[in-house]
Amino acid sequence: MAIKKLDSIFRPKRIALVGVSNNPDSVGGITLRNLVGGGFNGVVYPVNPRREAVFGIPCYPDVKSLPKTPDLAVIMTAAEAVPQLVQDCGEAGIHGVIIMSAGFKEAGEAGKKLEEQVKAQKAKFPDMRIVGPNCLGILVPGLNMNVSFAQTMPKKGHVAFISQSGALCTSVLDWAYESNIGFSNFVSIGNSMDVSFGDLIDYFGQDPNTKSIVLYVESIANARTFMSAARAFSREKPIIVYKSGRYPESAAAAASHTGAMASEDSVYDAVFRRAGLARVFEFGNIFDFTDLVGRKRIPKGNRLAIVTNAGGPGVMATDSLLSMGGSLVKLSEETMQKLNDYLPSFWSHGNPVDVLGDATPERFARAAEIVLEDKEVDSVLVLLTPQAMTDPTATAQAIATMSKNTTKSIMTSWLGGAAMHEGIHILNQNGISNYPAPEQAIRAFMTLSDYSENQQILYETPREVPVSFQYDRNELRQKYLTQVFPKAKVLNEDDSKMLVNDYGIDTTHPTPATTEDEAVKIAEEKGYPVVLKIYSPDIIHKSDVGGVALNIENEEMVRATFRNMVKTVAEKRPEARIDGITVQKMVDTKDGIELIVGTKKDPVFGTVMLVGMGGTTAELFKDQRLEFPPLNEHLARQMLRSLKIYPLLKGWRGDAPKNIDKLIEVLIRMSYLAADYPEIEELDINPLIVTPEDVIALDARIVVDEELLTTPAKEYSHLIMRPYPESLIKEATLRDGTPVTLRPIRPEDEPMWLELLGSCSKESIYHRFRYDFYFDSHEVASQFCFIDYDREIAIVAEHEKENGKNELIGVGRLIADPDVEIMEYAVLITDKWQKKELGFTLTSYCLEIAKSRGIKKLAAETTRDNKPMISVFRKLNFKIRFNEDTTVTVNKDLEQE
């Protein structure tokens, strides 16, 4: 497996240094000294045809002449020599390569061509993995292995650090050494020609020594691999990311509202949020947060209580909290009463809780304990300043003792110098993060609460929203691909609205008119008042050139507006083709809210969706939220809740609430449309009017990716995540004639999945999981119902009961390794539905799915007493092995079938 082949890079026994020289200050000289002098236990082979020895170590002319094949080759020659050296490594059977050499795509066109040559050589050897080129190297402190030209070896720790910047790596290493921060692995990936962020997240996600992962990102190339890996591991191991280049001056502004608003950084922000990552915006804070999240006490929200023995630091913390969007908790009456009963009468009587300058350790701890008991408090920050009666060490011990009685997060800031050191050590030893200043603590807390929200979004059960389509979507697609999209790169308003309407989103229908008389006739048929818009394939923002007129109430106004509009627009845009105007019914918007909804194809991450404040001021206020299709009910609702105008949708100061459920349905329908049409480069609905009763698209515009009309895209290649695989829904009949539906599991199935497991006996549960599996919690259930369809498929058998309700009666699950070559299989059938060949039906179908996806091997494990499933495996020609520990291992080689 490609991921396991990374062992040759991070767990090598023999390393060849290709291009090493006698210069002790060269890249090769420093790397050799780091390995030999740093305590690396393996063998190091210097390779240089012009040297007999380097630093007294015998040197070899090339990798083919080495006495034993190394696991890892480190190339540090001139860039021009690298392609041939990669070929030499491949022919020698070397599976791991680090290319430190610079001068590739970062150096311009010539370097880019050279990098393509390296890729071509690597492609000849599928078992080879390459880190770099243009990288610092790697460090594995646990193995005393410094394969880099960095001077410093950090201490052992549990953080894997991955960076695209080698220069930043050296700075971080120096800083970490001074700050006594340790790492499990430290990786500079440079140009990441082969090994990418996604590969390394997969690898370190399975490393028991790695508890969290920190990324320094300049750009991401393989978006789907990154998203799939990050979503797979972000719940188990926090992934913290810092993205540089947030404001690229070279970024070209897109023509559409959606394009202009969906900037590169906002798209990255949406990626990190959807993957459940924690984003840090100031690099200096990244390890502050890493320390905090490593304590494993994640708050449910951003509601903070502050306990302090001085007013000033409390005010500083409050200012920071509010400026970052946090919430200073209003303490409950019960909490206030407890504090009044316990604290001196001169305490602050509010949050921050000022326990006064003469506070004893016991007073500090008890006050913090009381506020933590408040249901509205997510976390507490304890601030201590050195005053005459303060005992920092004893207070730290009291807080540490109290912390053992709560699961909520506690942060501290012991403000001062040498007198604070022993107390800070006690806090750190007891799992409590301490910060030199209140502002640092607040920044770490806000990042933690954002991370908590991302995790909740990732695994929150959505409601079922019935979405049906009037037409067959496949037939509809053929119509637009052959009849509509070839008309023009920018579809006219009528064609754009037609597609939007076909997906169940209500629109106003514009009718073209080339003369005044036609316009009058159409207006009278539609009924006054009407809207007139300029009809031109060359004009995108019609209102900018006087191409929109509202509330046209009679024939005279139609004629005058027609003449004036055509004349004015022709003067402002003389190069534009004007075909007349369009007429549509005027919608009363006085009780409505204007939104913009759109999609745009990002060159890296594919199609992204946007919803926000609409109208002509959409780009000015930029009240928006980006997400990636496919959407479910919860994601759509979360998009709306994040908007500043959401209170207006809910009903503001006596206004009637708008139809939010219908709006959510519209967003889900748009996500279907985005998934079905990779040929759509951009789609704008602006404005989308949301009233108390309805949701109506007043304007729409579609830009077609003409290249895909002649060169069709691979299915769903324009999406960063694979949508729900509807093609796998299948009807089946059991041996007794019972009809069942076999289909992939959905997040919405969580309640039925819990019922399925609840109806199983302990024996059935044990056969499936091989231990007493505790399933009755959302946290556990979400891991089985929220899945990445690229890597995992769970096929449920759904049966309609006599009362008309559906139930799940069995589930077969396929889980692929990160390289999607081997799949593990497991199946569970409820006791009531056993011995009806449901296990055979599910296993046969899952086997069929694995074959269709090009899986090489299927493996499973059960127990000796699970005779029905052993019988199923035997019928399907699995190889069966009975182990000494009562387990049974089965597998099937799909490549030979």
Automatic annotation (TrEMBL):
GO terms for molecular function: acetate-CoA ligase (ADP-forming) activity; acyltransferase activity, transferring groups other than amino-acyl groups; ATP binding; metal ion binding. The keyword Nucleotide-binding applies. Keywords: ATP-binding, Ligase, Nucleotide-binding, Transferase. Residues 740-895 form the N-acetyltransferase domain. SUPFAM superfamilies: Acyl-CoA N-acyltransferases (Nat), Glutathione synthetase ATP-binding domain-like, NAD(P)-binding Rossmann-fold domains, Succinyl-CoA synthetase domains. Residues 497-533 form the ATP-grasp domain. The keyword NAD does not apply. SMART domains: CoA_binding. PROSITE patterns: ATP_GRASP (PS50975), GNAT (PS51186). In the N-terminal section; belongs to the acetate CoA ligase alpha subunit family. This is Acetyltransferase.
